[in-house]
Amino acid sequence: MPQPLDAVLTELRELLLDPALTRAVAAGRRRGHTPSVTRAELRPVALKAGTRLQIVTDDGARPYTRNVAGAEAAEAVDALLAEPFGNWHVETDSATVQVRITKKGDAQVHRAARAAAPVNPVAPGHDRAKQWLLDPGDPLFAVVGGTAAKRRQVDAFLRALAATLPDDPARLPSPLRVTDLGCGNAYLTFAAYRYLVDRGAKVQVVGVDVREDQRVRNTAVAAELGCGDDVTFVAGTIAGAGVTPAPDLVLALHACDTATDEALARAVGWQARWVLAAPCCHHDIAAQLKSAPAPEPYGELTRHAILRERFADVLTDALRAAQLRLRGYRVDVVEFVDSAHTPRNVLLRARHTGAAPTEAQRAEYAALTGQWGVTPALERLLGRA
C-alpha cells in the first residue's frame, strides 16, 4: 500500500545516519523530474581519522567521492533525500528497506529482516577505494571467488550493462526477464542480477548451459545467495533450451565460435530488447577464408595464418553487427575487458529499435560477404535479411 512520501523519507534519513547502515543506493528518477546525479551510493568506511560516511555520486560521466561525518553527513544526506530519485535501497545490520516512488508521488515500501551478515561492513583503511559497481564485499564473491581479475571482469561487464539499459529503473519492464545463454559457472549471471536488484529493478533470470552439473551447481549457488526464486537454471543447448516467456535482455558471454551466433539468432527470434554478446573463438569464418583465395588486393591479409585468424575475428564480428542492424537493432562494438587482461575483449552491445534496414545497408552486407566469399553462421541460422 502506498505511504506518504515525507514520512518514508524521514525513516530513510534515520537509517542513512544510523551507525548500523551497511549500504544504500539511490537511482532512477521520479515522473517529470530529473536528479542532478544519476546514482548515489552511501556506505560507512574506516579511515585513519575515524569512521566516515562515504558518498559516491555519479553524474553519468564520472563518479565523485566524499567522506563526511557529523553535521556535514546530515547535510549531505538531506540534500540527497531532496533529490527526485525514483528508487532507494537501504541495508542495515538488521533490515533491508526498498522504496519506489509512484507516478502519483507516493512511496511503495518493502521492508525485510536481514538474516545474513552485512553485505558491506565498514571498509578498513581505504581512503581512495576504487568505485566498483558491485561492491567487492558482496556475498557473491564469497561464493564464487573474488580474485582481482574476476572483480575487474564483473565491473567491466556491469558498466557495459549499465550503458545498455535505461538509466531509470522505472523504464525497465517489471519484471525484467534476463536469459544468459551459455552461462557456464554463472558468476556474471549472478552479478547482473545483484546489480539490477540494487538499482531497484524487479528481475527474473534464466541461465542456460549444456552441462547438467553446472545447472545443479548454479542452482545451489542461487539458493546460498537467497535468490533461488528469481534466478533459475536449465540444462540444454543454446539453440534448443526452452525459455518461456521470451526474455527482454539476452546475455551471451564468451560462447565459443558459432555458439555466439546461435545465441544471437535466439535473441533475434525472441525480439529481445537488449543483447550483450562477448564472442570467443572465430573458427567458422577463418576456415572459409582459408579455403578460398582472398580478393585482390587483399591476399596478404590471409596469406599468413596468424593474420588470417585475426582478420577473421574482425570480419566475423563486423558481419554479426551488420546482421543485427538488418534485423532492427542499433549495435555498438566496444571493448569488454582491457586487452591487458584477456585477448577476447570485444563486446557486441545491441538495442532493438525496430528500424527497417536501408537498401544501402543491405547492399553493403551483400558486397562484403560476396567479395570475401563467406556465409556467416548467423546468416545461415536466420537467412538473408
Explain how this protein is built:
Helices cover 37% and strands 26% of the residues. It folds into 2 domains: 5-130, no CATH class; 140-382, Rossmann fold. The strands form 2 sheets. Strands 1, 2, 3, 4, 5, 6, 7 and 8 form an 8-stranded mixed beta sheet that branches. It has a 7-stranded mixed beta sheet with strand order 11-10-9-12-13-15-14, sandwiched between helices. The protein starts with a helix and ends with a helix. With 385 residues, it is an alpha/beta fold. The chain has helices at residues 5-16, 70-82, 139-144, 148-164, 187-198, 212-225, 258-270, 283-290, 299-303, 305-326, 359-372, 377-382, and strands spanning 21-27, 39-47, 50-58, 63-68, 87-92, 95-101, 107-113, 123-124, 176-181, 203-209, 231-235, 249-256, 274-280, 329-335, 346-352.
SS class: alpha/beta
| Topology as a string of helices (H) and strands (E) | HEEEEHEEEEHHEHEHEEHEHHHEEHH
Number of helices: 12
pLDDT < 50 stretches:
116-129
Strand content: 25-35%
| CATH classification class of the largest domain | Alpha Beta
Q: Do you know the CATH architecture of the largest domain? A: 3-Layer(aba) Sandwich
CATH superfamily of the largest domain: Vaccinia Virus protein VP39
CATH fold name of the largest domain: Rossmann fold
Number of domains: 2
State Rg: 23 Å
In helices, the fraction of residues equals 25-40%
What is the β-strand count? 15
Principal-axes geometry comes out as elongated
Distance between the termini: 49 Å
Report the mean per-residue pLDDT as an integer. 87
- Largest β-sheet summary: 8 strands, mixed
